[in-house]
Q: What sequence folds into this?
């Protein structure tokens, strides 16, 4: 498969990971290297693995069952995380300070990694339907997502300083809008 075509697909898939990483890092003064790296590795890994899983699942005759609702799963995951961020941003400051804020680890990171990689799953399904090999595109997709996510974690704090104390509100709205975009593309 043509490198530029694979790169274009990888960049398109990485946009969700980039936007989510910006949204998550908006509220941070500055994410540590380990936080930014962890988020980039998780997003990149999921973007790498999901096309492989989608490709294999399609070759195992799951195409018609999964394709009909994958966008709903992505939308639901992003909606829940985004709504929670919005809710937390509206809490009084003293209550909000007690809440854990690190979304670069634990269940939140896993959920976001999965939600941003569902499109990559669908791409893997498409490659299988086209009878195209998947390993090379999956590696490119994963590496591009890793780089774009890391860039997003570095840009987010700057945008957060511009947005002020409601940065988490904007981050939650961004996540919900990404989910709505995914949903609208499949309806």
A:
């Amino acid at each position: 498969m043509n490198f530029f075509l694979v790169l274009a697909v990888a960049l398109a898939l990485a946009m969700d990971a980039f936007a989510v990483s910006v949204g998550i890092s908006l509220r941070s003064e500055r994410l540590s290297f380990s936080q930014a790296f962890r988020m980039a590795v998780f997003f990149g890994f999921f973007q790498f693995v999901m096309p492989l899983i989608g490709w294999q699942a399609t070759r195992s005759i799951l195409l018609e069952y999964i394709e009909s609702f994958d966008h709903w799963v992505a939308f639901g995951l992003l909606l829940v995380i985004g709504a929670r961020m919005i809710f937390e941003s509206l809490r009084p400051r003293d209550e909000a300070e007690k809440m854990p804020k690190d979304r670069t680890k634990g269940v939140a990171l896993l959920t976001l990694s999965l939600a941003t990689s569902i499109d990559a799953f669908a791409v893997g399904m498409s490659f299988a339907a086209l009878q195209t090999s998947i390993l090379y595109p999956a590696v490119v997709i994963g590496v591009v997502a890793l780089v774009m996510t890391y860039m997003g974690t570095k840009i987010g704090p700057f945008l957060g300083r511009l947005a002020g104390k409601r940065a988490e509100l904007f981050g939650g709205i961004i996540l919900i809008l990404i989910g709505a975009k995914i949903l609208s593309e499949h309806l």
